[in-house]
Amino acid sequence: MSVYLDVNATMPPDPEAVEAMIAALRDGFGNPSSAHAAGRLARRMLERSREEVAALLGVAPECVVLTSGGTEANAAGLSGLTCAGAGPAGRVVLVSAVEHPSVQQQACGLERLGARRETIPVGAGGIVDLDALERLLAVAGPGAVACIQAANSETGVLQPLDEIARLLARAGAVLHCDAVQAAGKLLLDTAVEAAVTLAIAGHKLGAPPGAGALVVREGIEPAPLIAGRQERCRRGGTENVPAAVALGVAARLARARLDDWTRLAGRRDRLEAELLAALPGSVVWGADSPRLPNTTCLGLPNGVRGAVAVAALDLAGIAISSGPACSSGLERGSPTVAAMGGSREQAEAVARISLAPDTPDAALAAVVVALKEVVEKAGRSLG
Question: What is the model's pTM?
Answer without folding.
Answer: 0.95
